[in-house]
Design goal:
This protein is an alpha/beta fold and 346 residues long. 58% of the residues lie in helices and 7% in strands.
């Protein structure tokens, strides 16, 4: 009787697509959807996979900080915008290779195009049959196994690795909707600056990116930085897999800034990494450090960016010279502040 029960159990597991002799860890799947739907999908998949759920993009970002799933299933209408979440995954070097299934109650041609540009593997309309979802997952994992075998061979020869990986991420960045056009942004800033009724806060607000563009996700970065006293760049890397310097570099490219300014923005925290325009990049790095230390401006945190010693050597600045530079800068800033106060009182 025991033998019969064992045979029946084995047949049952095989019918579900599970090999009872397979002791390997089941693939991990993160499901990002409203609680009642993510729970339902999790139950559908629990016989073959190890599903985890998140109710929105911000919770998913928190999970990804310390966990690495094998697949993401994302609902388009989640808080934080499912398509934005997929775009964020696609432009992050840490997550760009994660396969994604995007779910939608009302798929549109525009949404499908944006999903493809973001690197989404497949788009599935709700409602769907469990077998439809299962087939999509099986297809993705089958493709992943083929790619993994190729990657293993490529890893033995660094020259054989994909030279276009970084370019693919840059191309995805270019296709993201909502990047503020520079001419319009510049005109609005000038209009505010020339207005007697505008405040510095209004100008600062205009300098920020479109509120629809990853604002919810970046609030999680600021919260992490504050809670764990992390430099904002470290918090960005941990949660998003990229930094404000990366995004700034892309905006500079889209706005067609001169190459020297693009390099200075992209490497203002890592001047040693730029192959060109090292003097200008080092100056921006030093200015950023000085402004933060003097309490002017905000980087989203209360940490002072570390000053690269190579920058001090480049400008022959020892400790005494740096202190003199700080004193001079503080005097200039105080004079400028007094001048602006005098203008505003007229």
């Amino acid at each position: 009787m025991y033998l019969t029960a064992s045979i029946l159990l084995e047949l049952f597991l095989k019918d579900l697509g599970m090999d009872p002799a397979d002791n390997s860890t089941p693939p991990k799947i993160l499901i990002v959807d409203q609680e009642r739907f993510s729970t339902l999908i999790s139950k559908m998949l629990s016989s073959k996979f190890a599903p985890t759920t998140a109710k929105d993009g911000m919770e998913a970002i928190g999970y990804l900080r310390s966990n690495r799933p094998d697949l993401l299933i994302v609902e388009e209408s989640i808080p934080g915008d499912g398509l934005r979440f997929c775009e964020l995954m696609g432009m992050s070097p840490n997550f760009a290779d994660l396969p994604i299934i995007l779910l939608s109650v009302s798929p549109s041609p525009d949404g499908i195009l944006r999903a493809r540009a973001a690197g989404v593997n497949t788009y599935l309309a709700k409602p769907f049959r469990p077998s439809e979802l299962q087939n999509r997952i099986d297809s993705i994992f089958a493709s992943s196994e083929t790619l993994s075998a190729t990657d293993t061979e490529a890893a033995k020869d660094p020259a054989a690795q994909d030279p276009d990986a970084k370019q693919n991420i840059k191309d995805r960045l270019k296709k993201i909707e909502g990047l503020p056009p520079f001419p319009a942004t510049h005109a609005q800033i000038l209009e505010l600056a020339n207005s007697d009724n505008s405040s510095s806060d209004e100008i600062a607000e205009q300098l920020q990116m479109d509120p629809s563009l990853f604002t919810d996700y970046y609030s999680a970065v600021v919260e992490l930085s504050q809670n764990e006293q992390l430099w904002i760049g470290e918090a960005e890397s941990q949660l998003l897999g990229l930094t404000h310097a990366d995004v700034g570099g892309q905006l500079a490219t889209e706005w067609q800034f001169a190459e020297k300014y693009l390099y200075s923005i992209l490497h203002h925290h890592t001047p040693e990494a730029t192959g060109r325009y090292q003097r200008l990049t080092s100056l921006v790095h030093l200015a950023d450090h000085m402004c933060r230390k003097l309490g002017y401006g905000s980087g989203g945190d209360d940490q002072i960016p570390e000053l690269n010693p190579a920058v001090l050597e480049r400008f022959s600045l020892g400790e005494r010279g740096l202190n003199i530079l700080f004193e001079l800068a503080e005097e200039e800033l105080e004079s400028a502040t007094s001048f602006l106060v005098a203008l505003s009182s007229d």
